[in-house]
Write a structure and sequence with these properties.
Strand content: 25-35%
Structural class: alpha+beta
CATH topology of the domain at 13-57 and 144-235: Gyrase A, domain 2
Number of strands: 19
Order of helices and strands: HEEHEEHEEEHEEHHEEEHEHHEEEEEE
CATH superfamily of the domain at 13-57 and 144-235: Probable tRNA modification gtpase trme, domain 1
Radius of gyration: 21 Å
Number of helices: 9
Largest sheet: 6 strands, mixed
CATH class of the domain at 13-57 and 144-235: Alpha Beta
Length: about 375
């Protein structure tokens, strides 16, 4: 039997073990799934402040006078609108419009753009990005050089600002970034996240990540694992690559048309323009369970009784879990456009039992405006 490949570890692995985290495999990494418990960690982020180790994410850097041109070739959103110190969410597509990955592009300078990609896609993404931009501005994979902490929750911005001895809550807008010092270490604080809450993602050189982690924990942020990160992002209806989007789905089908700027020239543009003109045939919908049962990934979605034809399989659940804050189980899945309107009742096959679910618009949870 062939030996199993060694799992990668972030610079904070020993910190997680010291805190008693339960470690699991995720995308080739050994990561904390929980410390105290998923519900407690979910609640901490919704009510106060939590911190996640997201150092497994990938950092790809484009430098030089044609850096913006190279990144624009890869992504669907408008990189030209970025100014120094700002970021945007976007996707990268194959020529047929399928999603390579979703990512955030940070403009640190006119000739310095950072693209953060998903952990499980680092090698695939970098190979694709390099092959498509080699003649413009070859990228550098700096993933191993960085630690990344996500401090999230209503108190997160103030907590990070206090540690940095700067009023970051008021000087750094959403999707903005600024340099600072935390625990005696130089960091970059980006006002981004994946939980539906306010907060900062802190980039720090890998050898110094532990000092920043300890400072954030010492300031009162609860350590949180991947379990809470998943329930938080699902309540906010944020897609997960490999579940809700992948190379078989397009951003238009996934409800991400707002990051597709067809006036720009990027890989996949022609396919997406054609699909937009023709209209999509399926959509990613959010639904709430109306009976006892939790929708899980790959559970079949059926038409309800009274529908013609009744009970037909029309899709599969892409993500599903209890929604601790909203108090009901929620999920996502692709269904035909005719069944995608809010209020439509579907049935989810939960381990042999058909459970009704209602399509709803927008995120399941939206934080109150300050």
């Amino acid at each position: 039997m062939p030996a199993q490949p060694m799992l990668k570890r972030t610079p904070l692995y020993e910190a997680h073990k010291a805190l008693g985290a339960k470690m699991v495999e995720f995308g080739g990494w050994e990561m904390p799934v929980q410390y105290e418990g998923i519900l407690a960690e979910h609640k901490a982020v919704r009510d106060d402040a939590g911190v996640f180790d997201v150092s497994h994410m990938g950092e790809v850097v484009f430098r030089g006078p044609r850096a913006r041109e190279a990144v624009q070739r890869l992504v669907t959103n408008d990189v030209g609108k970025l100014i120094d110190g700002k970021a945007l969410y976007t996707v990268m597509c194959y020529p047929d419009g399928g999603v390579v990955d979703d990512c955030i592009v940070y403009r640190r300078g006119a000739e310095d753009l950072l693209v953060v990609v998903n952990a499980s896609n680092i090698d695939k993404d970098f190979a694709w990005m390099a092959s498509e931009t080699a003649a413009i501005a070859p990228p550098t994979n700096e993933s191993d050089r960085w630690g990344l902490l996500a401090v999230q929750g209503p108190r997160a911005a103030a907590l990070v600002g206090k540690l940095a001895e700067a009023d970051l809550a008021h000087t750094v807008a959403s999707f903005g970034l600024a340099t600072a010092r935390i625990g005696g270490v130089e960091v970059t604080c980006a006002r981004t996240g994946y939980t539906g809450e306010d907060g900062f993602e802190i980039f720090v050189a890998a050898p110094a990540a532990r000092a920043v982690w300890d400072a954030v924990i010492g300031a009162g942020a609860k350590p949180c694992g991947l379990g809470a990160r998943d329930t938080l992002r699902l309540e906010a209806r944020l897609p997960l690559y490999g579940n809700d989007i992948d190379q078989t789905t397009t951003p238009l089908e996934a409800g991400l048309g707002w990051v597709v700027k067809l006036e720009n020239d990027f890989i996949g543009r022609d396919a997406l323009a054609k699909q937009k003109a023709a209209g999509v045939t399926r959509k990613l919908v959010g639904f709430v369970m109306k009976g006892r049962g939790i929708a899980r990934h790959d559970y079949a979605i059926h038409t309800p009784p009274g529908h013609d034809p009744a009970g037909a399989i029309v899709g599969k659940v892409t993500s599903g879990a209890p929604g601790p804050t909203v108090g009901v189980a929620v999920g996502l899945g692709y269904v035909p456009v005719a069944l995608s309107a809010p209020g439509t009742v579907l049935e989810i096959d939960c381990r042999g039992k058909r459970v009704p679910a209602e399509v709803v618009a927008g995120p399941f949870y939206r934080r109150a405006k300050a």
